[in-house]
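Write out the 3D structure for:
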Amino acid sequence: MAIRQQRIAQVILKEVSEMIQFEIKDPDIGFVTIMDVEMTNDYSLAKLYVTFLDKEKGADLQLKALNGYAKQIRGALGKKLMIRKIPEIKFLVDSTFEQGKKIDDIIDLLQKQRQN
């Protein structure tokens, strides 16, 4: 990702995190953390990877509720960012934590087998 893309992605991460924390009061979303932002080369789409701490509600329901606010968030970003094209916002579940945990579990299992 180019330096300008990285800067814009970091600003989007910060601004959207603040919007979710302070402005969006939806009980279906719960507590959410934005882990990463990926921008397309033409700045038309920003993929925001999120994790939800409230596992009881189900990530699918929370993600659907969060994506329901995407247009509102994009509009608010348009007022805050000084760029020509405001990207569409799409929220996706960040699965890297779960993948890392699976890898750790496999390594632990292999170490236990090696010791026996």
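Residues 3-115 form a domain with the GMP Synthetase; Chain A, domain 3 fold (CATH 3.30.300.20).
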